[in-house]
Amino acid sequence: MDERLYLVKEGEIALKGGNRIMFERKLRGNIRSKLKPYQSRMDKSKGRVYVSVEDSCPREQAEKALSTTFGITGWAESERCREKSMEAIMEKTEEILSRNPFSSQGSFKIDVRREDKSFPLDSHAVACALADIVEKYYPSLRVDLKNPDYTLTVEIRNQCFVYTDSRKGIGGLPVGTAGRGMLLLSGGIDSPVAGYTMAKRGLKLDCCYFHAYPYTSEMALEKVKKLASLISPYLQGTRLFVVPFTKGQEYIRDHGVEEEATLMFRAAMMKTAEKLSLLYHDIALVTGEAVSQVASQTLDAMTFTDSMTDMLILRPLCGMDKEEIIKVAKDIDTYDTSILPYEDCCVVFSPKHPVTRPDKKIMKEHFEALHMDALINEAVENTVIYTFSDQGIEEGKSGVRKAEDGEN
Ligand code: ATP
Ligand code: MG
Fold this sequence. Notes:
By secondary structure, the chain is α/β, with parallel strands linked by helices. Helix content is 37%, strand content 24%. The chain is built from 14 helices and 16 strands.
């Protein structure tokens, strides 16, 4: 088959010891699944994966695949030299430059990575020979080793490769290498960033959203679905569990202490998310909380919500300020959706003067006195599942009764 070649650089995986093979295998599988339905082949070499994909695969798809896959620190569409020799490298360089990849003004650099130390010429000698060729094609370009506009890279490994357009990857570890988690996804700025951040450490994530229709509108649900679809490529696909929680919210409003409503709701959310996690084999909860961002995110408040479940709760944004979170949200393209003005249910039911220094013991007693088990079970049973994958969204399957085996 006619194919294009991408040289993919592994980051942290290269530092792994005995279990490195597991990480590499996961990375190749994650890339391959995003290149479907096109045929691809992955060959590995020290610190690199050579990804060959059918020529008919649109560049856009291949580029999106590589730029949304965790475990990749850099990649470039590359060309293989016909043999491992200086003549072949020069020949390939001429061929690439004759297609005019740079513009005539600005600066350039030759970057030589000589992984095979037995290659007869050293990096400097290779760079000098290639600089002469660049000068022939681009007489006005000047050399700038620090901040070049253009870089021609040569990698001398078991084979030789030349490329002119190297891109940065998103780093991290391949999704699926660190176990499964459940992201509590609201419509705000923080939780999609929290999901992205934990997927970056290799977690495979499901998402759950607590919907209080009609207090929160269909548009609020559409917004959360949109957010799930935007983070889905980074998560290697995901499922969104939409939990109907209107009755639970109303019950807390009508039977609880007003100032404690937000925290009681959060406690009920944790309990419900825990139940869903048990059904779907997720072993950690992930939230978008950051210390002191709002009243329900003080240390005392988080101590209380932690005590509601035995599960590990990961709060990757805990030490970040809003500016930092917004920057990531913009990078991953969720920001514009997150700021759409549809109210989240926490906000709709918020008390005017929420408690900020709750006492864990007293709050637990108050929560237990509400006897919410039946309402929580009902909410779990009526949860609707949406599945997001590279092929798009599969619309709501309702009824969570038993975990479907062998998924994801
Ligand atoms: P976000 O910007 O993600 O909405 P936030 O700063 O608005 O977060 P809160 O509304 O207090 O803060 O929620 C804190 C975290 O609790 C969220 O980041 C999310 O993980 C979870 N959460 C809140 N509301 C919901 C909901 N309706 N469904 C699912 N998770 C929720
Ligand atoms: Mg919110």
